[in-house]
Specification:
Number of strands: 8
Strand order of the largest sheet: 1-4-3-2
Number of helices: 11
Oligomer: single chain
Distance between the termini: 14 Å
Largest sheet: 4 strands, antiparallel
Structural class: alpha+beta
Length: 356
């Protein structure tokens, strides 16, 4: 827990307040900027407004990065998530709530409350920090880069990785999540998935409630002046929630896939090599073999298959299996294997029950 504690106490209270304030201003600016889309494109379809909102979000994101580089103003990703939740809840409470039934209102209020509790829980959770004692990190490693640590002998412990963001070793390390301000590891991976599912459910409920408000108030049939601030904010936050559901749904599907096949996010390739470079290395320099050898069509097909897999298996020894040549041969080849994959059912069971 030492690395975790150091990471949390490095920043002063004034710096944390400053980041939080910048994040709050950025969220308000972004949401009111998005409200310009239904304000000036009220006659357009929701699909076009959704596309324009996505483009506007990218522009605001670029503007925020420019401000960070030029002015040295920094925000907090977890604070941005928190203030966006609060902003959507405020729009719901002030405008949308009047058009929803009592049951839906209670359900949405409970979802928001549970979302805030879950966000607080994952921010303060221990993902599986390991007391490494004398193990030290390489000062030349770039910030936020995660390196595999192979000092641990058993197969289960080889999934202990070092995170430069938290300055700690994490058991079952999946990735560092800036939005939740913490590493995702063995101890809080289930909480991460539950929280991600909670975001999807809450945003879906907000979309449903917003549509009810829009339909009841006939906002889509009004003019620019008839829409007003209430209509603009409801429609813009509706579009924002739709965008969130789209990318979070894909993100959720990705994590479900990784869980089913027992693969961590960190174990996927950052940058995929070109296939022709891999073939050249295999055929002329013997990278996948000890000596230079002719490359057969079947071996080429297998190499291309391994490239499509996308696992960074060369970085982690436990994903490597060495195949010796037949008697009289003079080469060995290294191929991909996943020693953690025990079948989908067992992988899901292990994911849901594995704790310290």
């Amino acid at each position: 827990m030492q690395g975790f504690t150091d990471h949390r106490t490095n920043e002063s209270i004034s710096a944390l307040i400053g980041r939080s304030t910048v994040s709050c201003i950025l969220v308000i600016f972004t949401q009111f900027t998005l409200s310009l889309v239904p304000r000036f494109f009220y006659a357009s379809s929701l699909l076009l407004q959704l596309s324009l909102s996505a483009l506007l979000l990218l522009l605001v994101l670029g503007f925020g990065r420019w401000c960070k580089r030029l002015l040295g103003v920094y925000s907090s990703a977890s604070a941005l998530v928190f203030y966006n939740i609060i902003f959507l809840w405020c729009v719901y409470f002030i405008f949308v709530r009047q058009a929803t039934s009592r049951l839906i209102d209670v359900m949405f209020q409970v979802e928001v409350a549970m979302l805030l509790v879950g966000l607080r829980s994952i921010l303060s959770s221990d993902p599986g920090f390991v007391n490494t004692g004398s193990l030290q990190t390489d000062s030349e490693i770039k910030p936020f880069e995660v390196e595999a640590q192979n000092e641990f002998g058993s197969l289960g412990l080889k999934r202990i990785r070092y995170c430069k963001s938290c300055k700690a070793y994490v058991k079952g390390f999946d990735h560092h999540c800036p939005a939740f301000g913490n590493c995702i590891g063995q101890n809080n991976h289930v909480l991460f998935i539950v929280l991600l599912l909670g975001f999807l459910c809450t945003e879906a409920t907000y979309i449903m409630c917003s549509f009810q408000f829009v339909r009841a108030s006939h906002v889509l049939n009004g003019t620019k002046f008839e829409i007003g601030l209430a209509g603009s904010l409801v429609i813009s936050t509706l579009l924002f929630a739709l965008l969130q559901v789209l990318w979070q749904g894909i993100f959720m599907a990705w994590h479900v896939y990784c869980i089913c096949f027992n693969i961590k996010t960190d174990e996927w390739k950052r940058k995929r090599k070109k296939k022709k470079e891999s073939l050249a290395a295999a055929g002329h320099e013997g990278t996948l073999g000890v000596t230079t050898l002719p490359v057969s069509p079947s071996f080429i097909s297998h190499l291309l298959l391994e490239d499509r897999i996308g696992i960074n298996w060369k970085k982690y020894p436990e994903f490597q299996i060495t195949i010796e040549s037949q008697p009289g041969g003079s080469f060995t080849i290294m191929r991909y294997t996943n020693p953690y994959d025990k079948g989908i059912i067992q992988n899901v069971k292990e994911f849901s029950t594995r704790r310290d």
